[in-house]
Specification:
50% of the residues lie in helices and 17% in strands. The protein is built from 6 helices and 3 strands; from the N terminus they run αααβααββα. It has a 3-stranded antiparallel beta sheet with strand order 1-3-2. The chain is globular, with a radius of gyration of 17 Å.
């Protein structure tokens, strides 16, 4: 019983120490315009397609997977199996789509709170 309490206590502390990562990840997604890119795509978007659509340096593209993992875990995006036909082959993998909360982060949504989020 002591070890279970210790584990719970440690988990509680670690969650508080790293809680800023959720808000910073969300801010990063908005600055990269990920919600708008996925919304314009109009279907689940493969990670490779998302990376291609972003305006980031090639050496930073491998961080997008980690960012999307956090954002899926926190409920801003949904991950699902998809396939996409490319010019020469068909690619299968996990695609990303908007979850209901991410709709409030779209530039053109009349109820958007993205400006408020970027301020804080």
């Amino acid at each position: 019983m002591l070890s279970k309490n210790l584990l719970h206590s440690q988990t509680h502390i670690w969650n508080h120490i790293f809680s800023f990562m959720k808000s910073m990840s969300l801010k990063c997604a908005i600055q990269l315009q990920i919600p708008d890119i996925i919304d314009r795509y109009d279907s689940p978007m493969l990670l490779s397609e998302l990376v291609e659509a972003l305006t980031i340096k090639p050496k930073r593209t491998h961080f997008v997977y980690r960012l999307m993992r956090i954002l899926v875990h926190t409920g801003f995006f949904v991950k699902q199996s998809v396939s996409a036909t490319r010019q020469y082959d068909e690619e299968e993998g996990e695609g990303y789509s908007l979850a209901p909360p991410s709709r409030l982060l779209l530039k053109e949504d009349p109820l958007s709170i993205r400006s408020f989020l970027l301020i804080f």
